[in-house]
Design brief:
This protein is mostly helical. Helices cover 67% and strands 2% of the residues.
Amino acid sequence: MRSHHGNRTTSYGPRSQVSSGSLGGGSLEGLSRSLTKEERASLLERIEKSLSLGDGARRQIIHSELQKERRNELIQADMERLTFRERLKLWMSGLFRAGGQRERFVALRLSQARQRVREHSQDMADFEGRRFLPGLPREIRALCRAAEPLSGFFSYIWYNPSALRTMLDYLLARRIPDAKNSLEQLCPLEELQETFRETESPGKLKQTVLERLSKYVESIPDAVIDELEGGMKPLYLFKDLVLFDYDSFFALFRSSRVEAVSEDDISFGNAPVSTALERIEELYLALHYCSRVEGEPSMYGELLHAYCALRQETEPGTPLEDIPPFDEEKVLQRNLLLLAREASRLRDSVPLQDMIRFFRTDPYYRFMAYTPRLRLREFYYANLKIKMLDQLDQRFQELRKGALDTMIRNLFPRGLSSFEYFSPEVETGIARSGVAELRVHRSLQFIFTFLQRIFHDDLSDFLRILSRMMPSRNRSNSVDISLFAASLEDLEQRLRAFDISFSPDSDEGKTFYRYRFGTADRDASQLNAYRALIQQKNRDARETAEKFQELLQGIRARFLSLRRGSMTQMNERYRNFDPAPGEDRPFETRLDRSVKVLESTQNILAQLILLESGSGSS
């Protein structure tokens, strides 16, 4: 990964090759689960880390002791900057107390801190009794009131990661030039269909999407990301102040947050330093974060709009950009500005740092301020990866169907042949009955078309020639080829019989239509008989498809074995049956063409069966 302003050295997406698999193979199931539970959980964890969500370290005070040498350097530098009056005090302190000059200088600094606290208009602390006095919570009360109107917004963001993801997704889609917010914007569907058709690999689709996503995210200019991260800072730097535990703070002074934000007069109590000091340190640190905002703070309007829209009773699925602006958006923006001004006033007027250092008995006391790290580019990639792969799952059936339609058109430019009686309307009617389902029409239509246009018009003639031209030593292959041709003819007759069985004039067809149009008035036994009829039709169709696949596989295996023989001899033999003028290798050319047709037919049929059975669906 790149440095903040350097060149990137690693990709946000995987570069490893994905196994291509086969068109009808197991990789199809893998695509319907493009993200496993483990992968999704890992990406969500990556999102949380990139946004510094749920970071417990930021909520803790990390005390940092100076090294002795560094401490002495600071003391020496401060002593050199003493005024004449301060030098005189330091010298006179040596007349009344023991200890070296450095120890007396530290005591002087603590005394000065105490004096600055006492000069405040409010009674803040009882240094001798080691107590914080009611003047401190009275000062903090205005801060609590300023933070209260923003508590819902900040709580919603920081305690609801999925909502924050949605809000940031909307922000980036609006702010990044030419943002890719959908699968089709990243990879046109036609291109994905073409990839699927060419590679016959569902896994290749996923790889293509991830490679395109990685290049897209890496191509976003650094300046755009830096500007967006800068605009997000108020969400982080004001978080601890808005979500500060005001209830616990005011409880230390025998009051509550509810009383503090009210207009009532409140009598606060005292709070022991031993129990209140760490809470005051947390408040001081929260104020310190706010001071890091340059100028007057503001939040992206897209975030405020998304927040308001997500909390409203809007119609599900309505795009955020189609929802009109809310008045609350301007109110939240104004409230943030008011809080920033109150925090600035408090930092300047209330000597929290002096009180902390005095009660820690160390004018050089400090604690580490955790700086949240926002990695917006990493968030964008992980979030889009989930989004794009989910969309790929949702669109896969459409992609596969589109690719199949193209493959079928390439094989049968005139489209598929129709049965006389068995049609898609028949299947729709069966499904509408609610009793059973028959989803076999397109696969059987595809087989029927193959038998009519490829087998009868070309393949049967080629098989006949092969059976006659085979050498005597390959007589078994000749017999097998003749049997394959005869079996395909039998299969065509079986398909015609299946089609006729849906004719209203056939006995079986009459039974079918009688049950189909009268299921509402049938008793349980009659409905069972109708269901059994449809189940039998499903079995007949599947057996036909399996037999067809078996025959094609057998023919293809014989063709491949012929490829391994002497092509010169086979080409000469073939010319005796088919002169094929202009062809140097007539047999080899026709054999290769037939193998390609058989392979394409097998792959298409396997996908049609998967579509009809629902396997591999998203």
